[in-house]
Amino acid sequence: MVEQALRQVVVVDGDDASPEVMIPAVAVLESMDLPIRFLRPLIGEAAIEATGSAFPVQTRAAIDDADATFFGSTSGPSTAALFYLRWGKQTYANVRPCHYLPGMRSPLSQPEGIDFVIVRENLEDLYLGLEGDIADLDALDLRSPHARMRLADLGPGKYAIKAITERGSERVIRHAFELARRRDGQRKVTVTCKYNMLHVSDGAFRRQALEIAEDYPDVECETFIVDDFLCRMVMRPQEFDVVVTPNLYGDILSDGAAGLIGGLGLAPSGCYGDDYGYFESAHGTAPDIAGRNIINPTATLLAAVMMLRYLGLDGAADRLAATVRALYADATVLTPDQGGTASTTEVCDWITTWLERDP
Ligand code: ATP
Prior knowledge:
Elements: E1 7-12, H1 18-31, E2 36-39, H2 44-51, H3 57-65, E3 68-71, H4 79-88, E4 93-99, E5 115-121, E6 131-133, E7 143-144, E8 149-150, E9 158-160, H5 166-182, E10 188-193, H6 201-213, E11 220-225, H7 226-235, E12 242-245, H8 247-261, E13 268-272, E14 277-281, H9 298-310, H10 314-330, H11 344-357
Parallel strand pairs: 1-2, 1-3, 3-14, 5-12, 10-11, 10-12
Antiparallel strand pairs: 4-5, 4-13, 6-9, 7-8, 13-14
Helix pairs in contact: 1-11, 5-6, 7-8, 9-10, 10-11
The structure holds adenosine-5'-triphosphate (ATP).
């Protein structure tokens, strides 16, 4: 047997209810006997206690040395790690699959065949954190062409900057087209943003996508204004394959997409840069259900599937994906958000037992 190279994965257990899914999900991966070494460097409150810093240099170095990070949602001080994983590691493409598996508790009467991926630009748009007082912009003498008045004349208030750069758009749009080519889907990219109102910024994103589409004659390309897209996504989600969109729309649309198949407990997320990837659930820390052992581990397990593929462990990814499919087909051990009465622990035990039985 050829010895496989050992991969290193940094694990961040996260805050509130996140450790309740991260700890058993890593245990599932460990039970699969994979060539992965999991590391848990200090972070957040524990790191503050030990080192005085929420995100010590050693933790940052561990992330740099690792092949990927498996990330539990954070709130509070450990969020510094998230900022590093995004901007420090330049993970510009946030890939959020929306795949209905029979047995999931979708609110739709016909969810069969929903299988699309939202590719959200992950680093710019309104998420640069450039906000402030409108008065600070006085010197720019900005005028609203729509309101036909000076910004300063609107009176006191706040602004936020939306930045759509050529480099930022190009790399995420190309990621979407490459994914459409690779995926076993309709070979279609849908571009969506508010290009009718935001002619300059979102207009540039759309124009750039249409230019890039010419490099991919084998992939269909269509564009929809984001409000029209949302209506189509709710009414005919089966029509979509790969959807590419600026940051804010992608954040909102992907939670909506999760709702189509049965909720946030089902939605994984992978963030890819040119030389790094981190993987997490699309949901947050679910503080309202923390400590109850009922948080659905599916999103985290499916994020693990994405991570295994990224690490080149396709066989293991297929096994774990097939086991999650079997969990829903069986539908006897599901968490309350899916209409079941099982605990998180019971679902993860079911997964481990199945993996042991069908190696
Ligand atoms: P963020 O802004 O960080 O994405 P959020 O404020 O949107 O977080 P979430 O933590 O995503 O909030 O939770 C939103 C709702 O979905 C909560 O009621 C939470 O309990 C529920 N939820 C989230 N994830 C799960 C899960 N895995 N299983 C069950 N319920 C979940």
